[in-house]
Write a structure and sequence with these properties.
There is one protein chain. The chain folds into two domains: 442 residues, no CATH class; 83 residues, no CATH class. The chain has 21 helices and no strands.
């Protein structure tokens, strides 16, 4: 039994192991999320109208969640990694215990606010009264996510990313299965009442967060037996009061949570403005359908590429915080430049591909409700800027510049609000104005964060040099895949042509990345099995 326990211990994982665990988890989460989104959007009685109720309620839930817990994992992981880097194991564990108690109280407060305020929020804020039940059944999830976030932060701080990744995957798998099951039951019992089907979908979220917490807590109780809780030789723990430690935790977590809160506010800008401003022009039903397209189809598709990128943002916080605690600037540069390069290599082709094949993607995935091609194409432009901002924000948080991402995103949200107010009521833009606002929001927050990063640490690279080859490779990929699509449309269906063209795009992109030597020898060796990959590329004369 002891051997099995050690296999689940907090043994540190390498930087790339952590990234891969999180990346695999996030991709699987997005795929599962897309599956139940496809189901809901194509389900008779749900479709875009049901999505409007479901997503409006979910965005309010996400807003309260951002206040109570979203920034917590990065904050806790930063504080714990700094303690562990200098051998203060006892101090690291004390931070965890105090954090758990603190955010249990905060999470419970958020749950009560949402439960008792559901009616007012649905009718007065959202102007979608049908969302009341959706909000109420979501409320318990805030408490469970809050305390789960502290556990995930502890695991991340010990660079045990697989624990977080596994729990998130388990949660999303449960959510997918339960969503489909409960919506079908609600549809049968209520004769496809859209509002009650939307509420049933959110019950699945609350249940999934409960079981995810149980999984995390059991993992912790088993693995804690193998954690070294005594300090390294010669290291003393600063015995501050509980109050002072809570202040320290909040000093880090609040700015990070504000960044997440602003991200949620950014989405809620659409939930507050799209229906409200479109209703006088096109009627309430059509306005809700437009918002359903934006929130449940476009937002989900444009956020899928960011699943890869969350891994870099999450892994960079403890990695850079630990390196800076030991004044290891070389490690900071290596990990940051590598993460930015991979961010660009993932974000650019996704941006271009989604712009080119927007109509085809929607027809392929949502054959029963495929409207929104132009909206998706415009929204996709924001992907690369959002991804870069995520990675840089993770680095800034690790460096201790926790306020910068919040300030940068605050500027972006102000721009977003102005754009929505000005553009959506204009018949030339309408719902596309919300997409334009999102682009400008993310461009602004990225630029501010990047300028501060360059001033904070002496980087041994420039963003321009990192982007030259990826831009060339992406351009070639776009031209070749679109030409293939046009050619195939003359003898096969557009849906099948879209699918084949996307496969061609991926294949061409990978080949071009190798042929253009986008990765240096050192960067290839940072990849899993990097030594073997480099030897193979050298053998076939790609690298000298």
């Amino acid at each position: 039994m002891r051997t099995k326990a050690k296999k689940r211990s907090f043994s540190k994982e390498s930087f790339m192991q952590g990234i891969l665990a999180l990346m695999f988890s996030q991709v699987l989460i997005k795929i599962l999320g897309l599956l139940y989104s496809l189901y809901l959007t194509n389900r008779e009685g749900f479709k875009d109208a049901g999505n409007a109720i479901y997503m409006a309620g979910y965005q309010i839930y996400a807003l309260l969640l951002a206040i109570s817990s979203i920034g917590v994992p990065n904050a806790i992981s930063k504080l714990i990694s700094e303690k562990l880097a200098v051998g203060d194991n006892r101090g690291a564990h004390r931070i965890f215990k105090i954090s758990f108690a603190t955010f249990a109280v905060i999470g419970l407060t958020g749950t009560l606010l949402l439960f008792f305020g559901a009616g007012f929020i649905a009718s007065k804020w959202l102007e979608i009264p049908e969302a009341e039940n959706t909000l109420r059944v979501l409320s318990p999830a805030i408490f469970f996510v809050s305390i789960s976030s502290v556990l995930r932060g502890y695991f991340n701080g010990r660079e045990k990313m697989s624990a977080t990744a596994n729990s998130q995957t388990f949660e999303q798998l449960l959510k997918t299965v339960l969503t489909i099951t409960l919506v079908e039951i609600a549809a049968f019992v209520t004769s496809t009442n859209t509002a009650l089907m939307a509420a049933a979908a959110t019950v699945a979220t609350s249940l999934a967060t409960l079981f995810s917490f149980i999984y995390l807590f059991r993992y912790y109780k088993i693995a804690i037996k193998d954690v070294k809780l005594s300090n390294d030789e010669g290291v003393k723990t600063e015995r501050g009061s509980v109050k002072s430690i809570i202040k320290k935790i909040l000093a880090v977590s609040i700015p990070i949570s504000i960044t997440s809160l602003l991200s949620s506010v950014n989405k809620n800008v659409d939930s507050f403005t799209v229906v409200r401003f479109l209703k006088p022009m096109i009627g309430e039903a059509a306005a809700k359908a437009k918002y359903g397209i934006l929130s449940a189809k476009v937002d989900i598709l444009t956020s899928m590429p960011l699943a890869f990128n969350v891994a870099f943002a999450t892994a960079l916080v403890p990695a850079i915080a630990g390196a800076m605690a030991k004044k290891d600037v070389e490690t900071v540069n290596k990990r940051l430049s590598f993460s930015l390069l991979l961010t660009i290599l993932i974000g650019l082709p996704c941006t271009v591909g989604m712009c080119i094949f927007s109509d085809g993607i929607l027809k392929l995935l949502f054959p029963m409700a495929s409207d929104g091609g132009v909206l998706l194409a415009i929204s996709a432009i924001a992907i690369i800027f959002t991804a870069l901002a995520q990675t840089i924000n993770g680095a800034l948080q690790g460096l201790g510049k926790v306020k910068t991402p919040a300030v940068a995103f605050a500027v972006g949200v102000i721009i977003k609000i102005i754009c929505n107010i000005v553009l959506i009521p204009n018949r030339m833009f309408m719902e596309n104005g919300a997409a334009i606002g999102s682009i400008l929001c993310n461009v602004a927050s990225f630029l501010i964060a990047y300028v501060v990063l360059r001033k904070t640490v002496k980087l041994e690279f420039s963003l321009t040099s990192l982007m030259i080859k990826p831009v060339i490779v992406t351009a070639f990929m776009g031209v070749i895949s679109y030409a293939a699509f046009v050619l195939m449309c003359s003898f096969i269906s557009a849906r099948l042509a879209t699918l084949i063209a996307i496969v061609i795009a991926v294949f061409v992109y990978v080949i071009l990345v190798i042929c253009f030597k986008v990765f240096s020898k050192e960067e290839i060796e940072m990849l899993p099995k990097g030594d073997k990959i480099y030897k193979f590329l050298k053998k076939i004369k790609i690298y000298a």
